[in-house]
Amino acid sequence: AKGAGRNQSCFYLPKMQQRILERVEMDSDLRRAMMNHEFLLHFQPQWNAERKMVGVEALVRWLHPVKGMIPPGQFIPFAEESRLILPLGDWVLMAACQTKARWLKEGYLDDVVMAVNVSAMQFAQEDFIDKVGKALAHTLVPPHLIQLELTESMLVHDQEDVIQKMRSLKELGVLISLDDFGTGYSSLSYLQQLPIDQLKIDKSFVARVMDSKRGASIAASIIGLGHNLGMEVIAEGVEEDAQFQWLKQQGCDLFQGYGLSRPLEEKILIGSFVKQV
Ligand code: C2E
Ligand code: CA
Ligand code: CA
Ligand code: CA
């Protein structure tokens, strides 16, 4: 047994060391990236049933000097582990508000809502509400044009604290969307107490609407639930026209996905969707 144990550690230790090394490297790389302003936002349009663009979701990217464009799935988890998600999240919030303010100043996409992702750790900060207030005050963006995307998983902790914070956000006047809806475990009685403006059907459900009766009924139920609670419902991950048509028929309010538009650089977004005069 002893021998087996030794063999095991010989096998696992290098792997673990490698993982630790990777984390340390990523950590210093991320810190450097923050200092060097290597992050940027792309914007994915959100459409209503008449195919009018009514929102954009700001999605962070890392333009690494050697590795090129890195998607958030490859660095957000590390940023969360090292708490660098806090300064990164501050930057995203401010940059999204500044971008929206600039568009307003230049007369672009006036009624288009800017949706901003918020991580659990960011939301849990005691001064999160202050930070949102400061971003609004600093940029002078009308609060109803900013929508914060929270996820179900961040709502499970201290329910009283969550309710208080969400109420404070509503007092500031921003919109609240519940992202990845259906993948978490929030109870309906709890949901009912939260001042949520929008439910976002997770793309894993959208992907299944045309596959089976069950897949379809899950999405239809979320739409019904959201509407019964007085919320707007948006579907993410809409890739096919058949999905768009079906969701639209079910009364889904808004749509986002590669089938309608990919996340775009600001220049391309403005170039494609602002009529030049
Ligand atoms: P999310 O908030 O669920 O964002 C939607 C993701 O789905 C985006 O990936 C988007 O590009 C992708 N997507 C859009 N349409 C389609 C589609 O039709 N099919 C499929 N398969 N995917 C689609 P992205 O930009 O790689 O972001 C991944 C995740 O990283 C986001 O998921 C979000 O959780 C996180 N993230 C992105 N930006 C930020 C940010 O600024 N702050 C925080 N905290 N998290 C962010
Ligand atoms: Ca999101
Ligand atoms: Ca989502
Ligand atoms: Ca998702």
TrEMBL record:
Residue ranges annotated for the EAL domain, each copy included: 23-277
Domain of life, per lineage: Bacteria
Protein name (database record): EAL domain-containing protein
Natural source organism: Maribrevibacterium harenarium
